[in-house]
Design goal:
- With 515 residues, the chain is of the alpha/beta class.
- It has three domains: 182 residues, Rossmann fold (3-Layer(aba) Sandwich); 194 residues, HUPs (Rossmann fold, 3-Layer(aba) Sandwich), CATH 3.40.50.620; 102 residues, GMP Synthetase, Chain A, domain 3 (2-Layer Sandwich).
- It has 15 helices and 20 strands.
- α5 packs across α6, α6 packs across α12 and α14 packs antiparallel against α15.
- Bound molecules: xanthosine-5'-monophosphate (XMP).
- Xanthosine-5'-monophosphate binds next to loops.
Length: 515
């Protein structure tokens, strides 16, 4: 990606949102660590720099940030902690806050100052305790908080702006106007990001593999489908998609794969490894262990198939195509990790373990994109809406939706109840109202009445959440009539189920999947 604006990440939980908001406004940007920013400034010149918020305090941080301010013409936006860095660097005073300002707050624009589209008084999101108490040299105040604190500053001569609140957060009602003011009025930049340029830069990335054979671990999900279609557009039949059926799929997944095989020109090879997976999982009860077994078996099956394929067809694969997205890339460069390794909540299963063993180079044409952008590219590539807007489905599939020990019968119960949920979501036109929807089999038995007899059977939990990227999630509020219908159908049609419950836990504290 030809990056133009650098977002230097001081560890704020909102940094990703700055890139997102910039893209919505039509501007390319790239997130990087402070160290990378300083290093790259020696040889490169960005169009602007954003210093993000962060958990530090200028009273403890002794880093020299002067490289960011040497070039008199370089536009700089300091957000929250970034504004405090500006304040201190340019000779103002930062004071330790006693109470701090957190959450939704009122913001007043200082008289005589106008941001196009933004009223004199508006709601913003604040999250700080230190604050700039004396204006730095050559700066004027442009915003004030409801507590009378300096909430925004602007350099009188240079293109520098400081904001104590977070314009990138959804709750800051006029955040887009304020960011647009920085980009267009302060920095004087012109838009460089559109769905057309987005597609062009992805295609450009694929050019480098022309003439090579590319392998794709294909799941039929949005990311691998868009990535494979994009690559096929450049290298034609030199891409091979291998789909592993691990026996832990829902009916809709198998149906989708068969349909993609029929309706697209992609070269898709389906590998049925159900027996191998079930055998490997036969004594596994622990969630983490199950995830590891599924991941390991996947790699074994995939690797064996690739070797067999190479042997039989004389094809040597050089690249492995992965549908990595920007949130994963950001995660891996995040300075959050500085303080130590983050705790593993779950071992996510992906094909990350493959490349080293198989000596394949990685091809990740979507690595600068967010999910909604991948969907937009999918549509531009002519893929059907239903394929592009499919809900996410995890690699370990039903393996983590049958709690505890798996069996053919427990997998069947989830497959059948999931199919009912899926049919009803479509029938009620609710599929797009939720980000993800699935059923989970609980390892408990409860008493019920079926017909005239007593039943002592298992429980299905429904899980439906809304989210942007899976990092946080809220429970989807769905009509009772819909929930009643799903519950009644599952209890009546799925053998062995007497009770249906609805999980109303957000993430955090719950995760989306139950295991
Ligand atoms: P959790 O349960 O961690 O899930 O809140 C967040 C999102 O990630 C999906 N998920 C996975 N996706 N491999 C994947 O490809 C995995 O191992 C995996 N585990 C969870 C989950 O469905 C949700 O969308």
């Amino acid at each position: 990606m030809k990056s133009s604006i650098w977002i230097v990440d001081f560890g704020s939980q909102y940094t990703q949102l700055i890139t997102r908001k910039f893209r919505e406004l039509g501007f390319t940007s790239e997130i990087m660590t402070v160290e990378d920013g300083v290093e790259r400034l020696k040889t490169e010149k960005p169009k602007a720099i954003v210093l993000s918020g962060g958990p530090q305090s200028v009273f403890e941080d002794t880093t020299d940030y002067s490289p960011f301010f040497l070039d008199q013409k370089l536009p700089v936006l300091g957000i929250c902690y970034g504004m405090q860095i500006l304040g201190q660097f340019f000779g103002g005073r930062v004071e330790k806050g006693i109470q701090g300002e957190y959450g939704l707050a009122k913001l007043k624009t200082v008289k005589g100052f106008l941001i196009p589209g933004c009223p004199q008084e508006t709601d913003v999101w604040m999250s700080h305790s230190d604050h700039v108490s004396v204006l730095p040299n050559n700066f004027k105040q442009i915003f004030e908080s409801e507590n009378g604190l300096v909430a925004g500053i602007k350099h009188e001569l240079r293109p520098i702006l400081g904001l104590q609140f977070h314009p990138e957060v959804h709750h800051t009602v006029h955040g887009r106007d304020i960011l647009s003011f920085f980009l267009q009025n302060v920095a004087g930049l012109t838009s460089d990001w559109s769905s057309k340029t987005m597609m062009e830069s992805c295609l450009e990335e694929v050019q480098k593999v022309k003439g090579s054979k590319v392998l794709c671990a294909f799941s039929g999900g949005v990311d691998s489908l868009v990535a494979a279609t994009l690559v096929e557009k450049v290298i034609g039949k030199d891409i091979y998609c291998f789909f592993v059926n691990n026996g832990l799929l829902r009916p809709q997944d198998l149906h989708t794969i068969e349909m993609l095989k029929k309706k697209t020109t992609l070269n898709i090879e389906i590998i049925d490894a159900t027996e191998l997976f079930l055998e490997a999982l036969k004594n596994d009860q622990d969630p983490e262990h199950k995830r590891k077994t599924i991941g390991k078996t996947f790699i074994e099956v995939f690797e064996a198939k690739v070797h067999e394929f190479e042997k039989n067809h004389g094809i040597k694969f050089e690249y492995l195509l992965q549908g990595t997205l920007y949130p994963d890339v950001i995660e891996s460069i995040s300075p959050h990790k500085k303080g130590g390794k983050s705790v593993t909540i779950k071992s996510h299963h992906n094909v990350g373990g493959l490349p080293e063993r198989m000596k394949l180079k990685l091809l990740e044409p979507l690595r600068f994109l967010f999910k909604d952008e991948v969907r937009a590219i999918g549509l531009q590539l002519g893929l059907e809406r239903d394929w592009v807007f499919r809900h996410p489905f995890p690699g370990p599939g039903i393996g983590v939706r049958v709690l505890g020990q798996l069996s053919r019968d427990s997998i069947r119960k989830v497959q059948e109840s999931d199919q009912i949920l899926f049919e009803e979501l479509k029938q009620h036109n609710l599929y797009d109202s939720t980000w993800q929807a699935f059923t989970v089999l609980l390892p408990v038995k409860t008493v019920g009445v079926k017909g005239d007899g007593r039943a002592y059977e298992e429980v299905i939990a429904l899980r439906m959440v809304n989210s942007q990227d899976g990092m946080t999630a809220s429970v989807t509020e769905l009509p009772w009539s819909f929930l009643n219908r799903v519950s009644s159908r599952i209890c009546n049609e799925v053998k062995g189920i007497t009770r249906v419950v609805y999980d109303i836990t957000s993430k955090p504290p719950g995760t989306i999947e139950w295991e």
